[in-house]
């Protein structure tokens, strides 16, 4: 009896180690960089939308680290510019909704009204702040129904800092940066030599060694997709890089921000035939692919099949776990939604706010998956216990 009691701490220790160990990947920067696990290309890409922003404030170092830890294939970011021409990771052209800028008395006179995509918008515009000033701010969670405990704790990061997060990961992690609001940025931010926002964007990628067409040796070493809602930006940079590009498509009632084309124009067969010369794929809002009425997903459109017929990938956005974003068809179950979009619609990548959920779904539903963790643990306990029988 005493022998068994003496053995108990070992069993407890084994259980503690197993219950606290990370089953997927070590933390970024802690792995063996000499033999990094390559990017998976056999199933739809898990694209961490602004990082794991369902858990942590978006576009922050911490949100991207969490996404990598949870199994993201790509970490996605929006690129804007500071007043002094430094490219930063931030979604909105104004700072109001996701930072504490309103708490800074020294910035009270910075509020402006600019025209953004044909609409007069008032707020604290990112283009009116230097990088140093932006770094003094802290980021907040966008949605009030998500965890607020990290508000005011994390900084805005630069494009270069974002890239190093991916490059420092213990496995190959791709990046998915967006050329965000280029019309506004080029209007209010000026670089020497007549360079444009798009030029600085591509220069940054080249500086860190990103090059090569889709699935080339160079691309697989440092994977990247370049995305934008502005088709002219994608066409402009096509002369500077052969890195794969994705044309983002907004809601049916929102025209393109630079060419003022309608949704119906840019999803026509004629336009798809044109744009496929410059882009690898399209990134539509998912409710345009599968229309929604009274919170029920209806009959899918034929856009995915028409894109695939032209060898264009389709990476819809955005998948979220919360009930308010899950249509009734999915019984408030994000895994049912993933199953529908991957196995019925056949998309090639998914932008998700909850990287871990998508990764778990794909792991659990993999054809060769066998969850034998529990049986292995019991077997090890039995082996340790056998000497005491």
UniProtKB/TrEMBL annotation:
Looking up InterPro entries in the UniProt record yields: GP_PDE_dom (IPR030395), PLC-like_Pdiesterase_TIM-brl (IPR017946)
Pfam families reported in the protein's UniProt record: GDPD (PF03009)
Q: Where is the signal peptide?
A: 1-21
GO MF terms listed in the record are:
glycerophosphodiester phosphodiesterase activity
The EC number(s) given in the record are: 3.1.4.46
Query: So what does this thing catalyse?
Result: a sn-glycero-3-phosphodiester + H2O = an alcohol + sn-glycerol 3-phosphate + H(+)
Keywords of this entry: Glycerol metabolism, Glycoprotein, Hydrolase, Signal
What's a GO biological-process term for it? glycerol metabolic process
Which part of the chain is the GP-PDE domain? 44-362
Q: What's a single GO CC term here?
A: vacuole
Q: Which family does it belong to?
A: Belongs to the glycerophosphoryl diester phosphodiesterase family.
Q: What is this protein called?
A: glycerophosphodiester phosphodiesterase
What's the source species' lineage?
Answer: Eukaryota, Viridiplantae, Streptophyta, Embryophyta, Tracheophyta
